[in-house]
Amino acid sequence: MAARHRTRWATGGAASALALAAVLTGCGGDGPADTARKAESAVGSIASRASEAVESATAEAERRLDGIRGGIDVKGDVKVGTPAVGADGRARAEVTVDNTDDSARSFAVQVDFTDAGGRLTDTVIVTVEHVQAGDSATATARSTHDLSGEVRAEVARAVRY
Length: 161
What we know:
Distance between the termini: 19 Å
Largest sheet: 5 strands, antiparallel
C-alpha cells in the first residue's frame, strides 16, 4: 500500500528584487554616488531581511518538530536526493524515509536548502504519513521561495511518530 504524503512548509519570505527597484526608482535627483550608496544600503537591508526570514523559518521548523508527541529522532532513516530548480524557480528534492519500526508510522522531516558555500537559504518540513512497517516511502521537499545557482539539500532533522 502506498504511503500518503503531504508537504508542509516552515515559511519565511525572502526579500525580492522589487524592493530594490522601488528604492532605486525613488532616487530621482540624487547624484550617482548617492544612488549607489542607497542601492548598497537597500541590498544590505534585503540580505538582512532574507537572513532573518530563514532564521525565523528554521526556528518555526524546530518548534514544530519539538512539538511532536512521542517522536523519535530517525535522521539516519531518511535520505534526500539532489535538488533541481524548476522553471518556477523553486527547488525540489525527493525525500525517502525508511520505516524500521514494527508498525506503521509517520515522519516529519526538516530539509535545509543551502547554496554552494553552505549558507542556509531555505528550510521546509515534509511529512510522510502512514508508512507501513519495513517499507519506504517518498515525498517532495519544495523550497518556499525562488532559489538560484547551485542548490544543495540536506536532512537537518527527522522525527518518526
